[in-house]
Amino acid sequence: MKRIVVLISGRGSNLRALVEARLPIEVAAVISNRPDAAGLAFAAGHGIATQVVDHKAFAGREAFDAALGDAIEAQRADLVVMAGFMRLLTPGFIRRFAGRMINIHPALLPAFTGLDTHRRALERGCRVHGCTVHYVTEGMDEGPIIAQASVPVLPDDDADTLAARVLAQEHQLYPAVLRAWSDGAFRLEGERVSWRDACTWPDAAHYPEY
Ligand code: GRF
């Protein structure tokens, strides 16, 4: 069975969705840069190994990233899955895991990279919004797109209601992508992701209607 390491910094609702999806994938460890991340308790409660690599304990980004990279490598994982991991990573770290690290971002990339995506989407009058799973490359939130899910922006939305609607999609999209990855359904080809059968995935089952 393929092994993943999940990186978190906080709540861990995407981690929970991945675990509860009972994928044919072993979660080798959950690693957090924050000792108080709620997702750590969830992982421990499900018998998953947890580790804290506290960024505050390191003199700088290079030292933190080196320690984090070593902790990941020790797990011999096939894929690094960032799920709400809120640290900017150095180019060296990203090169170390090039092609084997993915992230979920709460916007339809390439729109709205960075933080505060829901408020910014509302401010721009977007009629649709969503989330993106992508490979991690040196440009922040700029890596090759693996899959996306969209939601409508409704007239009465505020950033919280919109975030909740997007998050519900994240919880479907990330497990679906991981399942597809375990099946070998897509691969990275240069700057783009190519799907083995683009006609059947993603399909309607991944996008419940509103
Ligand atoms: C999610 O919105 C994810 O897209 C973003 O950070 C948030 C993490 O939430 N990268 P959680 O910790 O998985 O609940």
Give a written overview of the molecule.
This protein has helices spanning 13-20, 38-45, 61-73, 91-96, 117-123, 159-182; strands at 2-8, 25-32, 50-52, 79-82, 101-105, 128-135, 145-152, 186-189, 192-195. The protein is α/β, with parallel strands linked by helices. It folds into two domains: 1-97, Rossmann fold (3-Layer(aba) Sandwich), CATH 3.40.50; 103-210, 3-Layer(aba) Sandwich (Rossmann fold), CATH 3.40.50.170. The strands form two sheets. It has a seven-stranded mixed β-sheet with strand order 3-2-1-4-5-6-7, with helices on both faces. A two-stranded antiparallel sheet has the order 8-9. It binds 5-O-phosphono-beta-D-ribofuranosylamine.
Summarize it.
The protein is an alpha/beta fold. Helix content is 31%, strand content 24%. The chain is built from 6 helices and 9 strands.
CATH class of the largest domain: Alpha Beta
Number of strands: 9
Query: Count of helical segments?
Result: 6
Going by CATH, the homologous superfamily of the largest domain would be: Formyl transferase, N-terminal domain
State the secondary-structure class.
Answer: alpha/beta
Range of strand content: 15-25%
Order of helices and strands: EHEHEHEHEHEEHEE
Ligands? 5-O-phosphono-beta-D-ribofuranosylamine
- Main beta sheet: strand number and arrangement? 7 strands, mixed
- Spatial strand sequence of the major β-sheet: 3-2-1-4-5-6-7
Shape: globular
Uncertain runs are none
Mean pLDDT: 94
Helix content: 25-40%
List the domain count as a whole number. Answer: 2
User: In whole angstroms, how far apart are the ends?
Assistant: 35 Å
CATH architecture of the largest domain: 3-Layer(aba) Sandwich
